[in-house]
Amino acid sequence: MMNKKYKRVFSINLQPGHRNYTIKDLQDIKGKKKLTQILVSDALEAKAAEEADIDLILAKPDENVPLIRKAAPKTFMTVSIPFIKYSSKEDIVKKALELIEYGADSIHCGSWNLNFMKYLNEFKIPFQGHAGLVPRRSTWIGGVRAFGKTVDEATQLLKDIKEIEETGAWGVEVECVPEDILGEITKKTKLLTLSIGAGKKSDVQFLFAEDILGCSSIDTPRHAKMYANFNKINAKIQKERINAFKKFAAEVRSGTFPSKKHSISVDKKELNLFKKFLQKQ
């Protein structure tokens, strides 16, 4: 029986299904409940997120999207699209529609042109924006650093978020902003604020699965927290993998593998008949 928390929906490409949240749910929840969002990289992480009751998942626009959708069919999924690969609003919306066909519920617009976001909204495709430290725009704020620690920057941040709100977005990722500043801005916007390194006074807490799991290829950012150490576990697994391969190679060279139990036998009579056949060739 379907859990009552799931809503029956049609996706934008008319695929029937069930989701934990609709856009209306998210808008109604604002200010009433803290939500979670995780960036997942593959189907295993997506399945784990759904089983762990993570509210929202985010994915990159690669070949894993259909697999992630299948692994977490009931979790509201946003897929990011980097504008740098697309030269026009028509191109970028075409990519958005492709991802919608794979089962995306929403698009992450990142550092998109605001006009591109408005154009996407004309198709009523849900999307979220990005403000604060936007990595692709870090040169405009003097590099990778916290943003919003002065009244001028906080004012600019509010302006940026209100502009994103006006495009028709449902939410905005806010990165590396002082907690109290985001707390005040969260009260002044209809958007759900998704904090990554911006404190707890947001509507949603967002982290990368690789940071939570401790399997990142870079040092864990200050704003992130490791809840597991998969790099250590994976290193141990790799050591076991190498040892197993070495044992296999050694047994092949010594003649102990394959043994009789790993091989198929033939009746001696049939073998002799086959040998006689070969002699006549």
Structural features:
single chain; 281 residues; alpha/beta; TIM Barrel; 2 domains; eight-stranded parallel beta barrel; two-stranded antiparallel sheet; 10 strands; elongated
Describe the structure.
The chain is α/β, with parallel strands linked by helices. The protein folds into two domains: 7-228, TIM Barrel (Alpha-Beta Barrel), CATH 3.20.20.60; 233-279, no CATH class. It is built from ten helices and ten strands. The protein has helices at 23-29, 43-51, 65-71, 89-101, 114-121, 151-166, 179-187, 209-213, 230-254, 268-279; strands spanning 7-10, 16-19, 35-39, 56-59, 76-80, 106-108, 127-132, 171-175, 192-196, 204-208. The protein has an eight-stranded parallel β-barrel, surrounded by four helices. Strands 1-2 form a two-stranded antiparallel sheet. The radius of gyration is 26 Å and the shape is elongated. The model has no long low-confidence stretch (mean pLDDT 95).
Global mean pLDDT: 95
CATH superfamily of the largest domain: Phosphoenolpyruvate-binding domains
Assembly category? single chain
Total number of distinct structural domains: 2
- Per the CATH scheme, the topology name of the largest domain is TIM Barrel
Main-sheet strand order equals 3-4-5-6-7-8-9-10
**Sheet of most strands:** 8 strands, parallel, barrel
CATH class of the largest domain: Alpha Beta
The secondary structure category is: alpha/beta
* Number of beta strands: 10
* Low-pLDDT sequence parts: none
Number of helices: 10
